[in-house]
Amino acid sequence: MAGNKQWAAPLRNVVALLLVWEVVGRLDLIADGALPGVSEILIGLWNDRSDYPLHVWETLKASGLGFVIGNLLGVVAGIFFVLIPVSLRVFRGLNIAIFALPPIAIAPILSLTLSGLTPRVVLAALGCYFVTMTATVIGLSQSDSRAADLIRVYGGSNWLIMRMVQFRSALPSILSGLRVAAPNAVLGAILAEFGGGGRWGLGAYLLGSLGRAEPERLWGIGVVATLIAGLAYGVFALMSHRFVGASRAVTMNMSVPEKAGDEQSRPLSSILAGAMAVLLPFLFWWAFIRLLDVPAMISKTPIGVVEYLFFSPAAQSAQERLIAALWETLPITGIGLLCGLTFAFLLAISSRLFPGFLRAFMPVALVTQTMPLVALTPLLVLLLGRGTSLTLWVTISVTFFPAFVILAQGISMVPRATRELAMAYGASAGQELRIITIPASMPYLFAATRLTVPRALLGVMIAEWLATGKGLGNLLNQSRGYMDYGMIWTVAALSVILAVVFYQLVVVVERRVLQRMGMSTAE
Amino acid sequence: ASPFAMQASWINDAEFAGYFLGLDKGYYADEGLDMSYASGGPDVIPESTIITGRADLTLTTPDTTIKAISEQGAPFKIIGTQYQKNPIGIVSLKSNPINKPEDLVGKTLAVPPVNVISVEAMLKLNGIDKADVNIVPYAYDPTPLIKGEIDASLDFTTNVPFTISQQGAEATSFLLYDFGFTIFNDTVVVTEETLKTKRKELVGWLRASRRGWEENFVDPTVWPPKWADSWFKGTGRTIENEIYFNKAQQPLVESPNGIFSMAEDDIEACLTALGQIGINGSRDMFDTTLLEEI
Amino acid sequence: MPSGGITFHGVCKTFSGRGKTIEALRDMSLSCPSGSFTAIIGPSGCGKSTAMRIALGLEDADKGAVLIEDREPQDATRAGLTGVAFQDAALLPWRSVRQNVEVPLEVLRKNIRDFAPDVQHLIELVGLKGYENALPGELSGGMRQRVAIARALVTRPRVLFMDEPFGALDQILRRQMNLELQRIWQESQATAFLVTHGIDEAVFLADRIAVMSANPGRLSVVIDVPFERPRKPELFSDPAFHALCDKVAEVLHGGQ
Amino acid sequence: MPSGGITFHGVCKTFSGRGKTIEALRDMSLSCPSGSFTAIIGPSGCGKSTAMRIALGLEDADKGAVLIEDREPQDATRAGLTGVAFQDAALLPWRSVRQNVEVPLEVLRKNIRDFAPDVQHLIELVGLKGYENALPGELSGGMRQRVAIARALVTRPRVLFMDEPFGALDQILRRQMNLELQRIWQESQATAFLVTHGIDEAVFLADRIAVMSANPGRLSVVIDVPFERPRKPELFSDPAFHALCDKVAEVLHGGQ
Ligand SMILES: Nc1ncnc2c1ncn2[C@@H]1O[C@H](COP(=O)(O)OP(=O)(O)OP(=O)(O)O)[C@@H](O)[C@H]1O
Ligand SMILES: Nc1ncnc2c1ncn2[C@@H]1O[C@H](COP(=O)(O)OP(=O)(O)OP(=O)(O)O)[C@@H](O)[C@H]1O
Ligand SMILES: Cc1ncc(C[n+]2csc(CCO)c2C)c(N)n1
Ligand SMILES: [Mg+2]
Ligand SMILES: [Mg+2]
């Protein structure tokens, strides 16, 4: 009975939502009919039913394979980073680069250097790796030190602690990483299909369908993609729901983590790790080009970029265009970042305050994560115009989801015993959140922030490319058409460097705050 | 038969009818070619595929190709052109028509970012200040045009008007070509290396493709329906759309000297137009000798 | 019948855990008059903490009800009538000792600055002077428990719930704390509800000792403690005191 | 001088926490011969848990060293010589009672099936029969502590460390557990190191009582307990027993 009740409210909300959508769509109330009604989408799906099987199968293959590979790498890397903390710092640059690289910059290179399914699998896997890695690291590092002590006093190695304690207690967190990875994998595969010139896959279907000006078709594709992602999401959500209860500590662990004070005591190794963090992405970049034997005209090595930007005949004009574009992009990135975080934070909080509402909202959230923005652009442009509000919308939709899921996970892990303290004094839900749950999930809040920050720039660039025609995104897209690979690599490198800088800022704040709060950092 | 790879510039639509026909009818096999055909897409930059050796021959927009040759010393040669006249034009609704460049003043025009320079060149050629036109990005979907969010867009005039008519509106359009931006499109490009080593195959390809195109244009409504379950299967487009496309492109492809031919004054016009946007090509980037061997 | 204090009316609670179904409380009825001091004693797992948690509105009874000062638990706690020390100290690890003591004040939206002397006084009372800014992780087990005691007292509650608050303290400190608790309780005329395993502690502090037994958890007997107030440390060596302790032990033993 | 058991050699430990700098242990030297039973008693915050954590290799001493069976702590623990019950039960929340008891066996790579009867026996010994499959979250405070006791004993350790293992138990259960602990210790001839606040418990169980005092934490005196083994429950009412208890209390009081 309790189970029924638990599902009744969200179900009612979903039905209400669909109804509103149907009415609004049927009456062409939104953007002069650019948003079709639910039934129109379904009818469209039915009419196109013969087209879908092959496309869906291709997308399933690519995204499924990418999902498995990306997440496996993410989890293994996360475990490695926690076992050997210095490696996390060494790999930081590379990790962020993987997360922050604009797909519009790498997709052409991937489809040029790899063939068949591989570019799709790679893009899908890239969408999974960082999120899952971050979720794994935060989960592992937040495990209970009392349990670790227990294993240690029986001579257990760090590896055994990892196996017996950390991994298990990180499971809900890892599963939340997988939940975010599911739509990312599908979207990654679709984006590669969209651009890569193959005939099959939902992305290819989308590209052919875009020219028809039929929103039903685009939404049909979006809905099918969302169903694929939603299925995976649902499975992992159920699993994590089952795990979370028994993963939560019974009583709050009060031990203060040992100070990560080796920074001060070993400045040399710290500087070395920092240097490696900066060097590694360049090293990989260079190795990538060397190994795949990309022709020099297309591939620019780091040195090539420096040359392009400072010593080539085009240097002057390149610099000017770059600075102008940067100047347009950066301010809005800051605002978008704040908006994305705020939105994620509010959602995460409402997951505690209004769980029913949230369960109904989840499918909508998933649509925003799986529906390629290029398909949504006409609607967004009609609704929001081509200015700041559209850019913010796109940035929020690109950033909020991982942050929200990870944060909601952290919130759900707060031991009941701790929350009860506030409840025993009749605290309102809001007070309880403010005094107990939010501070207690602070490490997750920072992990969420770290997931958001590198993506904000990407969101702004996508909006610029699709709708506003300004800034770095536009510059990147224009350069693609002119085979101006010097500029493509420059913009890609610059956006990665910016992402790393933003990320590093968060890390610095995180360390200070968490140390003051006596909490262990996951960075 | 010798293997021969062709990279197209877009997804399978009527734009490539001649090649589909040639493949289906075995015209390439007749020339001793074991032809493989790869469709394109937004992330496929055709010139890149011939540099990396993934394809022997590709179809390109000449502005990109010539810019790459002149500025980066890319080893490309243009050995023919599918479109004598670039089908790209300014499309608008009859209800809010834009029939000539001057009409663009004060309007919002959606342009794929890669084509912005072309539009700017056309505006300049017609004495219009580019600051007077509000240029925004265009991403494949004509909905904003149909809904009036933008006044016009730059697109294939052979294609979009059909979509617009399907949505119950009527389109009007003009080619950039007709207002001074006189360039080819879908130029046939190979590397100098290929030109040297595979000359025979290239001539064979041109001959087979010309046969395909000529047969296609005998009646442009005949072939697209035949490909509903092969070349056009699952593209998301309609056969009526392809028929419209095929009909509309006929005058742009056909040439008195034979399909793919590049007349000297057309090459000259193409180079001049590109010169307007700072792309400085030269006659030696074109090689018309293969056409003579067909 | 409005009576104030704490009243349990036929409270039943069954848990269906993974292990099995456990009847934690069967038909528990108990009334602790306003201003009285009740000690709850009983074997481990007999439902003492469960009873207290139900009284605080943290757990719902399957049947029956608890009233605190004639109100629903939630109302009473929200009104700031109650003070609690849990069995587990349940400190917030990111807050200093002082900030931990201030938590109830924050929840009840009191002006923390007004209470600063109170907070300091309580911290000193539990022997943590000098540790005001320490984090819980930097304290010993007993010190943490003492923070929880100070926190329970800080709101000057009308009704005070304490679940084995002195379990981790050494005997001397425990005695000291017993005396302080008696003093504070008398001054404030609060209703006290103390779960404890120390029979001597129960006899020393309480007006009435509620003895519980396990399987199912239930109230078996309530023993009155007649000694005069204020009770002095000397009472611990009084033969009458020992006699009563023995009696409680016997009931406890029999009840098992 | 190889001697077995546990030896503290001039162990010093200072914490610099947020509150202030705390000298938790000053020059602590103590040797617990192999097979002996040592009880550690002292005021809250005097460094008992710290001493134990250093002996287990969980904390590094600033100066001095601890040897367990003539080995470094890490070696001794790795060899499976030690058993531990922490002040805080530290159960793994996702493991059932039985699986929690099995943790040390798993860490030491023992064949769990071989130990199944032992595990069951220990669970019953601590009175948790029927709760084998319950999760820690479904247990009462005292029940959780009992799981930790069973877990400490499951490896039949040569050296047994226990930090207030009976703090949350009622007196009857506590006495029972005291007797069981004595029996197990005697049978196994293990070296036992018991931190406790119960003077009577210390006197009843230990060969020697190490009394510590606080600020700075240090060993103040070691008192021998002469009573014969095995000690019977009757000892609790023996006047000599009470006299010794009083003596310990006095030292403890004086030491403060
Ligand atoms: N959340 C729960 N789920 C299942 N069973 C529970 C839960 N909480 C308590 N119990 C069971 O209820 C019974 C009473 O528990 P309670 O914590 O009230 O005992 P207690 O009297 O406080 O014991 P102790 O002195 O050991 O703290 C126990 O048998 C326990 O196993
Ligand atoms: N991690 C830490 N950081 C700072 N100070 C600490 C830390 N751990 C312990 N201390 C301090 O060391 C002293 C001794 O602590 P310890 O836990 O050993 O006491 P204890 O004798 O076990 O007390 P109790 O009986 O209350 O458990 C205390 O004053 C405590 O504040
Ligand atoms: C129907 C149709 N639409 C888009 C393209 C893609 N494309 C190829 S060239 C070009 C213009 C750039 O110069 C564009 C948009 C195509 N080939 N055919
Ligand atoms: Mg309890
Ligand atoms: Mg201690």
TrEMBL record, chain A:
Keyword Transmembrane helix on entry: yes
Gene3D superfamilies, per database record: MetI-like
Keyword annotations from UniProtKB, A to Z: Cell membrane, Membrane, Transmembrane, Transmembrane helix, Transport
Topology within the bilayer: Multi-pass membrane protein
Keyword presence, Transport: yes
Compartments, record wording: Cell membrane
PROSITE patterns attached to this UniProt entry: ABC_TM1 (PS50928)
Record-linked SUPFAM superfamilies: MetI-like
Domain of life: Bacteria
Predominant subcellular localization, coarse grouping: membrane
Positions of transmembrane segments: 62-84, 96-115, 121-140, 218-239, 268-289, 330-349, 361-384, 390-411, 487-509
InterPro entries according to UniProt: MetI-like, MetI-like_sf
Occurrences of domain ABC transmembrane type-1 (ranges): 56-240, 326-509
Annotated family: Belongs to the binding-protein-dependent transport system permease family.
This protein's name: ABC transporter permease subunit
UniProtKB/TrEMBL annotation, chains C, D:
Nucleotide-binding as UniProt keyword: yes
Alphabetical list of SMART domains matching this protein: AAA
Gene Ontology molecular function: any one: ATP binding
Gene3D superfamilies in alphabetical order: P-loop containing nucleotide triphosphate hydrolases
Entry annotated with the keyword Magnesium: no
PROSITE patterns, sorted: ABC_TRANSPORTER_1, ABC_TRANSPORTER_2
Keyword annotations: ATP-binding, Nucleotide-binding, Transport
Any Pfam family: ABC_tran
Family from the record: Belongs to the ABC transporter superfamily.
Protein name: Nitrate ABC transporter ATPase
